[in-house]
Amino acid sequence: MEGEVGIDQTRPSMTAGARVVAMLVRPHMGPFITSVVGAAVFAGGTVVAASVLGWVTDSVVIQAFTDDAEGVSLAESVWKAAALVLAVAILRAAGVVSRRYFAGMTSERVERWTRSHLSRQYLHQPMSWLRRVSTGRLIAHVDADNRVLVDVLHPLPFAFGVVFLVAFSAISLIRIDPLVALIALAAFPAMIVINSVYSRIIEKPLASVQEAVAQLTGTAHASFEGALIVKTLGRRPQEVARFDVEADRLRERRVHVGYIRAIVELFIQSVPVLATLAVVIFGAYRVEAGVMSAGDIVTVAALFSALAIPMHVFGFLLESLIPSVVAWNRLRPVVEAPLAPPPSRADLDVSGSIGIDVRDLTFAWPDRPDEPVLRNINLSVAPGEVVAIVGPTGAGKSTLSAALAGVLDDAADAVFVGDQSLASMHPEVRTTAIGYAFQEAFLFATSLASNIDLDGGHTRPEVEAAAKAAAIHDWVMTLPAGYDTVVGERGVTVSGGQRQRIALARALLRRANVVILDDATSAVDSVVEERILSQLREAANSTMVIVANRLATIERVDRVVHLVDGRIAAIGTHEELLRQS
């Protein structure tokens, strides 16, 4: 998709699938090997069980119908057969339990690791990267793509058990009759050939399904995010129609994949049935020729009966390899996206206010490099000074405030806090030194206290003090649950002004040395705003940069920066700028 992170188009194959599987299980070899050992025990028990059935046929069943059968020896054979069957059943049960338990442990650990790693990658990527990738794609990566990637691990230990089962069965079959063994084992090359053809056919349809999932997720996410707009503007029919289009596209692509899989599964499931039929027919001739005994043919039939379901599981593994490679091709650009090492944690004096300097800052968005939003910005804010940024719509006020807060990576070299550039500052030091409140405040679906104290490292009195500085404490205390009141997702259960003040309290709680307010009081009335700014100057004791639109705010600051078309048109006090105009 244009403008988004590219997809590695490595062609899916069994070799590529094997590499993906090896990558997934390598960090979890302990439980995985244990599950494979359990599968091997089950496979060995299955072959032994088939051999026991053959022995019972020759030594018990046929002997019981012959004239020379002796009651005592027959009874001993029956008891011996019962003991063998019980021992083999216990052995197989132990193998099944260990295989399933540790296979589940492996797949769950891998899924947890991939989700956690993706989340860490998201959080550590720069904002420029996050702006290039759609939200729907990011959600699909963590959910649908991750599930498809890990699905291949569920049948994997069983499939290894099939390999052991085939090896043990081959030894047993060769011992009985090499020709029968040759016919029986021909089923596996046939299944591999079928899967090879399947991998070439299914590659593009599977990729299109995963892409449709991302599109559908993005559409749903956009509708949920804009639920208020959708309802107030009567856009529900249009949103439903848009969602229906994406859902129909996903359905059509999945049905197409289902048709292909149904045809392939028909061939894969027919292979063991045809092989069993061929072995039974050929085995009957071999028995008639005296090469095999009746017990041998029972053993062969039992082995193939035991192999039928495992061979289907092996076929399912081969089918799952291709989708896992497709999912990995989608996830790989995110998982392997390079992360710049954070700068060394240099010391920064955070005992009081810190000045902030902007030196020759020119900034343009990556998708419009020839259209600078900020041009040759030079600005020095003294420690403890309060500066307002004003200007017409589109002048670059919010972009400049974002650059001062360190949100714009490409501008970090030109912004200095104290004597240290934001680019050379460790992220933890930067977030401690700079507090930032946006115009569009974001609240999480948790309590008010947790929304203010996001890291949970402050006491309730400290939270209340920050809320008082943001003029939200009195309103919180009118709520039945007070600071334990849970707000809805994105704070939809509180007003815009209340959201802004909660976000403002969040920025003030950390007592940052520099506070950047991007029109963070626009949703409150002028009287409340004046009270907030007064309390901020008393409580924060910080250097403050405020994007302002109201005259009352501009009159209260130390200096005003007037932006026009991304350039500083004038700097001075409010009175000085009035005289210049």
Walk me through what this model shows:
The radius of gyration is 35 Å and the shape is elongated. 64% of the residues lie in helices and 9% in strands. The longest helix has 54 residues. With 581 residues, the protein is an alpha/beta fold. Strand 9 and strand 10 form a beta hairpin. A 6-stranded mixed β-sheet has the order 6-7-8-3-9-10, sandwiched between helices. It has a 4-stranded antiparallel β-sheet with strand order 2-1-4-5, with helices on one face. The protein contains 20 helices and 10 strands. It has 2 domains: 322 residues, ABC transporter type 1, transmembrane domain (ABC transporter transmembrane region fold, Up-down Bundle); 225 residues, 3-Layer(aba) Sandwich (Rossmann fold).
User: Radius of gyration over alpha carbons?
Assistant: 35 Å
Residue windows where pLDDT falls under 50 for at least 5 positions: 1-9
User: Distance N terminus to C terminus?
Assistant: 49 Å
Shape: elongated
CATH fold assignment of the largest domain:
ABC transporter transmembrane region fold
Largest sheet: 6 strands, mixed
Order of helices and strands: HHHHHHHHHHHEEEHEEHEHHHHEHEHEEH
In the residues, how many domains can be counted?
A: 2
The chain-level mean pLDDT equals 79
SS elements, strand count: 10
Instruction: Provide the β-strand percentage band.
Output: 5-15%
Summarize the structure.
With 581 residues, this protein is of the alpha/beta class. It has two domains: 14-335, ABC transporter transmembrane region fold, CATH 1.20.1560; 356-580, Rossmann fold (3-Layer(aba) Sandwich). The protein has helices at 14-25, 29-64, 71-124, 127-132, 135-151, 156-176, 178-185, 187-225, 227-232, 236-288, 294-335, 397-404, 427-433, 448-452, 460-469, 473-477, 496-509, 526-540, 551-556, 574-580; strands at 356-363, 374-381, 386-390, 415-417, 420-421, 434-437, 514-518, 543-547, 559-564, 567-572.
